[in-house]
Amino acid sequence: MNLPTYLTMSRILCVPILLWILLTSYFSSAGTERVLIASAVFILASITDGVDGYLARRRGQITTVGMLLDPLADKLLVSAAFIALVQLDPKVVPAWVAVLIIGREFLVNGLRTIASSEGFTIEASDLGKFKTVVQIVTVVAAILALRWHHWDFGYLIIPVRLIAIMGVWFTVAVSIISAVDYFYVFWSKVEKTATVRRKRKSFVLSRRSKKQQQPAV
């Protein structure tokens, strides 16, 4: 395996580590250590998402294994984080939110699989990349909200819990919009591919018909 694949594998390895930190009784239920370590693990794992793709393109090390594991690692990390947060603080991350976000990931993955079988690809859009950034910020804020309601610096008060709640709702909105965008791109390419195939079939049939109509020499 090459370096990008190792980074992708490390992101998958972070999933059970993150769940252990958040859900184990080793740390206090809402202790400072728990939330800080969990936030650091999630942020580092998220950073590898961009780094492995960059290195794979830069080094020319794009492999079938990497293409398979990279989206799988992303979905596992995000799904694990939201499922754990549903258990820890359902007032910030309700169960239906986790179902919607995870369902969106499976939907997009399914569209990409169908597209691949049809001979074309659906590239990650800017909206999809923005959704990923929003998810990272939201998850980190929700983890920090397990310990702090707000940060009071005297001259500045940061409402951590409010930011987490607003982030969750914003993530829901962006996830829905990006899913619709992916479906629109998918359907447009399917229609374009079907049109090309119909024209090609019509051309082949017309050629055959002309040959059959020519008198035998």
Proportion of residues in β-strands: under 5%
Query: How many structurally independent domains?
Result: 1
The rounded Rg comes to 23 Å
**Annotation field: number of helices:** 6
Mean pLDDT: 81
Which series of helices and strands comes N to C? HHHHHEEH
Question: What's this model, at a glance?
Answer:
This protein is an all-alpha fold. It has helices at 3-23, 32-59, 64-88, 95-117, 126-144, 160-213; strands at 151-152, 157-158. α1 runs antiparallel to α2 and α2 (32-59) runs antiparallel to α3 (64-88).
Explain how this protein is built:
The chain is an all-alpha fold. The protein has one domain (3-213): Up-down Bundle (Four Helix Bundle (Hemerythrin (Met), subunit A)). 78% of the residues lie in helices and 2% in strands. It has six helices and two strands. It has helices at 3-23, 32-59, 64-88, 95-117, 126-144, 160-213, and strands at residues 151-152, 157-158. The chain has a two-stranded antiparallel ribbon. Strand 1 and strand 2 form a beta hairpin. It is elongated and about 90 Å long.
SSE order and pairing:
Elements: H1 3-23, H2 32-59, H3 64-88, H4 95-117, H5 126-144, E1 151-152, E2 157-158, H6 160-213
Antiparallel strand pairs: 1-2
Highlighted features:
single chain; Four Helix Bundle (Hemerythrin (Met), subunit A); 2% strand; mainly alpha; 2 strands; two-stranded antiparallel ribbon
